[in-house]
Amino acid sequence: MPVSDPHPIASLVRPSRTRTLNKLSGLLEPHRLILLALFIAGVLAAIQLMEWSWLPGYLPKLWEGLQMTLIMLVSSVVVGFLFALPLGLAQVNGIWPLRWLATGFCTVIRGTPLLLQLWLFYFGLGALFGQFPEIRDSWAWDYLRQAWPYGFIALTVSFAAYQGEIMRGAFAGVPHGELEAAEAFGMSRRKVFCRVWFPRALHRALPTLTGEIILQLKSTPLVATITVMDLYAVITQVRQTTYLTYEPLLFLVAVYLCLSGILIVGLRWVENRVPY
Amino acid sequence: MGAPRDERTNGKRTCNRDTRPAQAIRLPRGSERYSLTANQGDIVAIIGGSGSGKSTLLRCINLLERPTSGEVAIQGETYRLRSARHGDLEIADRRQVQRIRAHLGMVFQNFNLWPHRTVLENVIEVPIHVLGMKRDEAIHRAEGLLDRVGLGSKKDMYPSFMSGGQQQRTAIARVLAVDPLAILFDEPTSALDPELVGEVLAVIRDLAAEHRTMLLVTHEMAFARDVASHVVFLREGIIEEQGPPEQIFGDPRSPHLKQFISSVA
């Protein structure tokens, strides 16, 4: 006997194009137009009145710096996230030594400045490695005597700790009943994790993840203090050789704003693909 | 199917020795106050006041909750349990439990659908990933089941966009998809708005008509009386009285049951 379905409460509707147009038309109000004009005037004035002749000559170096910034960001986010999963899981579900370790790690890393960690890794660990001839003679020394591995390690460790804490909350926040249903249908623990717990936790963590990645982007300039040539380090060089203060910094502002903007739009797109 | 016996629970999780009525302690084990048997095709309604252990009893059958003592057998196969350090029983053979669970469907009070999957994906999840069914076949069967519970047109929706009644019907389709030996209903209509209760009860009644084995914890007394072949009244974690519905509702013996029936009627 099929049950009739008299009143559907809601149905899935994709936001249509017209709605996007409506959103744009909201920008066309007088006070917004005035602000927009002021902003454009400001940019034009900066281009006209300030000194930008250094820019073309430094473009290749800036491009390299940008690449280094992006490599630092992407690699530390990806690897850090891989470490964040066990860190979060251990805090929620681990046996006590693991839980204790994971909580301790997250607390210590989140409780100390990233700059300090960076220097401890570079000046501390880096100097320590140099004292062992075995390491100095090994293939690894080619990498270990450079600065970027320490920048990468510090950024990764930091991201793992912050994200581990977020994943802890995300894992703990998945309603127990959903996991229980999976269990009641005879799923193994691994299946429950792969099919229900992890995807649900990931979806719940996505909005916070976006914020963390933006924060991570803005942490990357710290690696300039250990001689990694990222975008910020290149701009510092420009300032020292051209004796200009504001132009390179304004350029840096523009680049970071663009990067943040792209990240926000991209990550929001990913977030919106979660359909419920 | 072979064994006449589908489920048997013997011993109560919530039964705390100190709070047991003195008379109950003297009863030998295996007496009707401590055990419950559902045969193939039985529809067992479990009733009782709040906190009487109805849900606990039901959840002991698929070991979502571990009994403190006693045993549970499904089709003659007894769960292997061992005593844990703090005196409770714990699962000794996880694989056995998973194998048996895969053939017991459970419908929860709060539906517990997986919100990151569509209605159809919810229904095919267990057949594909636990029972190893082919995807095409699972989808084909699922579509038939969704038609049957009146949700054929909603198969691509996400549960959070549906009413409680629709979600619970999806949950029932999800259970039917594993072709269960027995279905455990844990207060399937308690979280629903009053006007949505009917559509879910209609589906359950439909299943009752084809003599599926079901154990049903419910507060819908009229429905229990109507549909059940056997009624169990629980009080303080033990079975106070059990029997056919006519006897339980028409001629209750225990004063507690009398009082309970007059208070809910």
TrEMBL record, chain A:
Gene3D superfamilies xref list: MetI-like
What is a single cellular component term in the Gene Ontology annotation?
Answer: ATP-binding cassette (ABC) transporter complex
| Segments passing through the bilayer | 33-50, 70-89, 249-270
Write down the Pfam families for this protein, in alphabetical order: BPD_transp_1
What is its membrane topology? Multi-pass membrane protein
- Tree of life domain: Bacteria
Keyword set, alphabetical order: Amino-acid transport, Cell inner membrane, Cell membrane, Membrane, Transmembrane, Transmembrane helix, Transport
Location of the ABC transmembrane type-1 domain: 66-268
GO MF term list: transmembrane transporter activity
GO BP:
amino acid transport
Its annotated compartments are:
Cell inner membrane; Cell membrane
Q: Which PROSITE patterns match?
A: ABC_TM1
Under InterPro entries, the record lists:
AA_ABC_transptr_permease_3TM, ArtM/GltK/GlnP/TcyL/YhdX-like, MetI-like, MetI-like_sf
Q: Which PANTHER family match?
A: ARGININE ABC TRANSPORTER PERMEASE PROTEIN ARTM (PTHR30614:SF10), MEMBRANE COMPONENT OF AMINO ACID ABC TRANSPORTER (PTHR30614)
The family assignment reads:
Belongs to the binding-protein-dependent transport system permease family. HisMQ subfamily.
Output this protein's name: Arginine ABC transporter permease protein ArtM
Give the classification, highest ranks. Bacteria, Pseudomonadati, Pseudomonadota, Gammaproteobacteria, Oceanospirillales
From TrEMBL, chain B:
Where is it located? Cell inner membrane
UniProt keyword terms in alphabetical order? ATP-binding, Cell membrane, Membrane, Nucleotide-binding, Transport
Can the keyword Cell membrane be found in this entry's annotation?
yes
> What PROSITE patterns does the record tag this protein with?
ABC_TRANSPORTER_2 (PS50893)
Give Gene Ontology CC terms. Answer: plasma membrane
- Where does the UniProt entry say this protein principally localizes? membrane
Protein name from the UniProt record: Amino acid ABC transporter ATP-binding protein, PAAT family (TC 3.A.1.3.-)
Species of origin reads Vreelandella arcis
How does the record classify its membrane topology?
A: Peripheral membrane protein
Q: Which residue intervals define the domain ABC transporter in the entry?
A: 12-261
List the molecular function annotations (GO) for this entry: ABC-type amino acid transporter activity; ATP binding; ATP hydrolysis activity
**Family statement drawn from the similarity comment of this UniProt entry:** Belongs to the ABC transporter superfamily.
The lineage is: Bacteria, Pseudomonadati, Pseudomonadota, Gammaproteobacteria, Oceanospirillales
- What's the superkingdom here? Bacteria
Q: What InterPro entries is this protein classified in? A: AAA+_ATPase (IPR003593), ABC_ATPase_HisP-typ (IPR030679), ABC_transporter-like_ATP-bd (IPR003439), MetN_ABC_transporter-like (IPR050086), P-loop_NTPase (IPR027417)
Q: Which SMART domains match?
A: AAA
